[in-house]
Amino acid sequence: MIVAAAALPGEGGRWLLQKRPAGGDMAGLWEFPGGKVEADEGPVDALIRELHEELGIGIAARDVAPLTFASGLAGPRDLLLLLYHVATWSGDVTALHADEIGWFDTASIARLAMPPIDYLLLDSLRERSRG
Ligand SMILES: Nc1nc2c([nH]c(=O)n2[C@H]2C[C@H](O)[C@@H](COP(=O)(O)OP(=O)(O)OP(=O)(O)O)O2)c(=O)[nH]1
Fold first, then answer.
1. What is the pLDDT of residue 74?
2. How far does the centroid of ligand 1 lie from the alpha carbon of residue 9, in Å?
3. Does residue 125 have a pLDDT over 80?
4. Where does residue 83 fall: left (phi above 0), alpha (psi -120 to 50 degrees), or beta otherwise?
5. pLDDT tens, 77-91?
6. Is 7 exposed, middle or buried (0-12, 13-18, 19+ CB in 10 A)?
7. CB of 12 closer than 8 Å to CB of 104
8. In 3D, which of 13, 89, 24 has the Cα closest to residue 50?
9. If you average pLDDT over every residue of the chain, what do you get?
10. Residue 127's pLDDT band (boundaries 50, 70, 90)?
11. Is the confidence at residue 131, as pLDDT, over 70?
12. Per-residue model confidence (pLDDT) at position 75
């Protein structure tokens, strides 16, 4: 399974994370917004679609750049998680899908309960926060 996810930058080196809804897969864990890449779409198209569905924002492909990736097992499934940096977007970020959203610096992200694979993304995110 390939998942496209977004690193959305906020003020002061913070990044947007959302809390996965109660009752579903990995409920209550904090994640980068995004979702599965469907068979008939590319990863950036999937990201654009998911961010519209989950956060109500519009992003353009030219504002999206690869940041890092991680791979491993997510429960029984083999997962490839592609994390993209999203430089800018239109509209206000709204939690349409998540139980909660928040802006966190990388030290705070490291202390959140996340899917295991997400911790592998943090080194690149720290570097990006400094840059
Ligand atoms: N969006 C996202 N998913 C992640 C992250 N880390 C991680 O292990 N995952 C896993 C959780 C899920 O098994 C999978 C994403 O699938 P999902 O169920 O959220 O995706 P979706 O929005 O396409 O879901 P659906 O249409 O099937 O409801 O990737 C992350 O940081 N962001």
1. 82
2. 20
3. yes
4. beta
5. 899 999 999 999 999
6. buried
7. no
8. 89
9. 96
10. very high
11. no
12. 79
Residues framing ligand 1 (Cβ under 6 A) = 3, 5, 25-26, 31-32, 34-36, 50, 74, 79, 81, 115, 117-118
- Whose Cα sits closest to atom 5 in ligand 1? 31
Topology (CATH) of 2-130: Nucleoside Triphosphate Pyrophosphohydrolase (3.90.79)
What is the ipTM, given to two decimal places? 0.94
User: The tokens 């939690």 sit on which residue?
Assistant: 95
Which distant-in-sequence residues (6+ apart) come within 8 Å of 20 by Cβ? 26, 27, 28, 29, 30, 31, 98, 99
Helix ranges (DSSP H) in 1-131: 43-55, 106-111, 122-130
Distance from residue 37's CA to the centre of ligand 1 (Å): 10
Structure tokens, 79: 């997962």
